Amino acid sequence: MKNIIIASTSTIHGSGYLDYILEELNTFFKEAETILFIPYARPGGISHDEYTNIVKTAFTKINKTVKGIHEFENPVEAIANAEAIFTGGGNTFVLTDMLHRNHLIEAIQNVVKNGTPYLGTSAGSNICGLTIRTTNDMPIVYPPSFNALALVPFNINPHYLDPDTNSKHMGETRETRIKEFHGFNPQPVVGLREGSWLRVSGDSIVLKGHLTARIFEKGKSPCEVEPETELNTLK
């Protein structure tokens, strides 16, 4: 049975890394002593070791040990043996490229579908969708495929931002870009605002946090859904 948290971000304004969701994670990871961290997205170009150390420090607050997947000789084997998995944010294209090249897409799909807890934030949430075509990131590398883990039957847009009515910037809004996506692609998109997450338990997909999410479906007007809304019918 799938057991997943898909979070918009790792850090909200005025809070430390994962602090806003640590209480939830303490319950979510209650059966795991060690969490396998995937640092491939490398925010700001930091090393895998530097990124993993940030995550290790955060998880000491709930008495969890963290090991980076790059510390293992065989990453596929590391996934197969993981008690729990966390994929952090950064650049979604870099992350996806590394997952494909290390043959980890199917490996992660298999263990998560069999119940291994999976946490994603930002880029690590982007890859939970059907494709990464609704990421906000620059394509600084060219992955072999834009196909992602398909752990939910739609695409994710983390860090979703509403138009700023006070801004003089006349460029595209996030909503405009998602509408452009639907000019070529049929997949629904869930716009997750900062501090929101999706809790996946088996076939159930529920919006959590204190904010609404914005739902985009091809050929329909965008709509808002309230926290605790079930999204498993969105396809």
Automatic annotation (TrEMBL):
GO terms for molecular function: dipeptidase activity. Its EC number is 3.4.13.21. The keyword RNA-binding does not apply. InterPro entries: Class_I_gatase-like, Peptidase_S51. SUPFAM superfamilies: Class I glutamine amidotransferase-like (SSF52317). Keywords: Dipeptidase, Hydrolase, Protease, Serine protease. The keyword Protease applies. It is an enzyme of class 3 (hydrolase). PANTHER family: ALPHA-ASPARTYL DIPEPTIDASE, PROTEASE S51 ALPHA-ASPARTYL DIPEPTIDASE. NCBIfam families: PRK05282.1 (NF003642). Belongs to the peptidase S51 family. This is Dipeptidase PepE. It comes from Aestuariibaculum lutulentum.
